[in-house]
Amino acid sequence: MAITKLIADSITSGAIANTPAFSVKTNTGKTLEHDTITKLTFNTETFDTDNAFASDKFTVPSGKAGKYFFYASWQTSTGTDFSQQRIYIYVNGTAVDPSNQIFHDSYGSTTISKILDLSASDYAEVYAYHNRGSSIGTLGTEVFQGYKLI
Questions:
Q1: 97 CB neighbour count, 10 Å cutoff
Q2: Is 0.90 topped by the overall pTM?
């Protein structure tokens, strides 16, 4: 009986929920210059449980340190004439494990997912890169999502 009540109270209060959590996207394209790492921006917030996403970055709220799962993607319609297209998650202004990015040579969709151990006030952002011979435009379908693991 006591265990059942503890579990029910924890679920109701959010004590064992995957929060904070957020999902943002954009519906406008962005120009990415050749051989330049560019910060992606987002203009539509689908949800943000702790109001922790602002100014195109997620900041870990006070008291919410722990392991976080992140997912991000971007696309371009001109994916046939560049040799690398990358996506990065930056934490506190530094790329996290950039050697573990996903590269696609024959089409214009790039995604990344990472589990990161973050402290309160750490922040995460998304950046994109390509090395096509000229600038390219994104499709305006960029996504950035994340949540704290239980």
A1: 12
A2: no
